[in-house]
Amino acid sequence: MAKTIMIQGTMSNAGKSLICAGLCRIFRQDGYKVAPFKSQNMALNSFITEEGLEMGRAQVVQAEAAGIVPQVQMNPILLKPTNDMGSQVIVNGEVQKNMSAREYFAYKKQLIPDIKKAFRQLDEAYDIIVIEGAGRPAEINLKEDDIVNMGMAKMAKAPVLLVGDIDRGGVFAQLLGTLMLLDEDEKEMVKGLIINKFRGDKTILDPGIDMLAERGGIPVVGVAPYLDVEIEDEDSLTERFYGQKECARVDIAVIRTPRISNFTDFMLLENLNGVSLRYVDHPSKLGSPDMIILPGTKNTMEDLRWMRQNGLEARVVRAASQGTAIWGICGGYQMLGDILSDPEGIEAGGTMKGMGLLPLETIFTKEKTRTRVDGRFLKVEGILAGLEGISFEGYEIHMGETRSSLPAMSEIKNCARKQEFSQRTRQSMDGVSLGNVYGTYIHGIFDREDVVTAVVRALAARKGIALDDLKAVDLKEFKERQYDLLADGLRRHLDMEKIYEILEGGI
Length: 507
Known about the structure:
By secondary structure, the chain is an alpha/beta fold. It contains 16 helices and 26 strands.
């Protein structure tokens, strides 16, 4: 039976996911078999396991930090928002249905057996389970039938570390206010407080730390600094959307739609010397990039409508006519076509015109494609013709079928361990290219060094630039270094002796 510890936050984006990943790495370094767990995740960044099942990206990162293969049991419930009022509900890696917030609130207690089963499977296989909460535990309106914060802590008999974000201000009020709003039995489960994202001289905080211990009755087990590590973000609260970057020798713009998903596809490009990768949400910010990427989205039709209304669609179409490379992934690929049809109301319902940059027709269906693939570029036109023959790997995760009269850009092979999870016979071809416009369903297509170097060299050559010093990192090795840096940073600033004491003591 595993020892458990749970990380909860005073607010969303307090740094729970990162601290969980760091603890997973530390426990692994210390010789333990450790696994992450989050009963319910709400995120648009998801992942397909080797079995062809869908789970939240945060637990994938934590599993990687723990040195283990991601399993859907680590995140049995995933909510993917489709609009401001509802989400697609995914249980044990498979789509159940779309639900409104109110409908899901009434339904969620039915999922407790699924949560307990998933947790029990991990409990039997690992020494330590690091559990992540969601949002904050003191939301009065969400406490009834809670399955992700204190309700989960009680199910797992897990002591809780409460994390507050000092970077956004009011950290002492965050921590004390949260404790005051907890029921007495819940407060007793909180065994330590963490102040996160601190910048500066820690001694300045000493009076506040003493006050927290006195008024809250719970020790502060660490003041974690703002760590400079490159680790995949979970959701739209990521800071990478808001940084202002100067255009480098090769400039790539990613259209940041309201329901952007799986922006983790661009991590390697973001860390390539000589390349600027910018997230753009308004025509005024687009500039004249060398390539425009339309990323994945949870609602293709609504996000295309948003682009149409704010003028970004017109700018993308104009850039394509001027020879700029345009690349669509998943929902972005669907947008590039002629027609989008949703007869069953899977997304927005009805039919709408696409951008008309590729001869495609997409029909949305209830059936969700989810599988890992290996692939190889076959026929690639225009600027990026040098991709032909290069191999890649990734995963498909989408609603809808796309048809085209053009020859396929790549051939793919289904790599899911359990073919029955693929739900239908897989096609062996994917994507198309026409002139300087490219589209694919494959997430992770830019995760291979030879793919990104071929793309960037081609974009540079079009400008008459030779990138002799271009060197992409090995993504797996890069991630491993970042997890080690994260663990080193947390070891220096958290009282690990006290955290181990809490872990051993339980509740």
